[in-house]
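QA checklist item 7 of 12: single-chain prediction sanity check.
[x] sequence parsed
[x] length recorded as 253
[x] structure emitted
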Amino acid sequence: MPLVLPGVPAGVSARGFLLRHALWPLLALAALSALSMGLGADFWLADRLYALQGGHWALQNAYLTEHVIHRFGRDVSTAAWLGVFVFWLFARSRPALAEWRRPLAYLLLATLLAVSLVSGLKSLTNMDCPWDLSRYGGDVAFYGLFDARPPGLDRGVCFPAGHASGGYAWVALYFFFLQLRPRLRWRGLAVGLGVGLLFGISQQLRGAHFFSHDVWTLAISWFVALALYLAMARREAPKAAPAAQAALQGAGR
């Protein structure tokens, strides 16, 4: 049975939808990963941010980056999620808001799953933050994603970018508005990208993450949002052919 994708025009095929929303983002992820992790763009950018701050992470504990964007930003993202949760509870008790219930449930799940998945992966990937590395004033050599670490070395917990997930998880607003108000979907996407960029750039300035860490956080957030949107799409029984419909009608006379 064909999928009914909420908000997608009837003339747009599922193949075309997936081409734009899955294949192109996947190719972008591959290209940015090759550039940042394979060709050294991570170090190129971090070297310059480190040098601009005088050869140390001067913004690591600065009020703006640490207290406002990191701590307060995290609290705002959490408060936004709780606000959506309260609105979902309210919509469940109001028949006039029935159309909002499923999209709100989607938004709650998509954002929660994205943040949780990023957090879980951080404990498994075993990669260090820039500020941990001897190249940037720390005491640890760099080990790539698939490099073996020496026994006894503390685990790295910096890949993907956890704080940025509190912003990028909201790219799910694209699919939320696609279900309710399709014209607003690009604004929803801009909110998620904007907040994610703010969080991510701030953490890079503090020496907490490389560029690739944020790329992967955005990719995880996007594909979680896409997968859940597709999983929650309804299936529609195929329409009978005209000849079959006529035969059925004749048999019922």
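[x] summary fact logged: Residues 56 and 218 are 27 Å apart (CA to CA).
[ ] second reviewer sign-off
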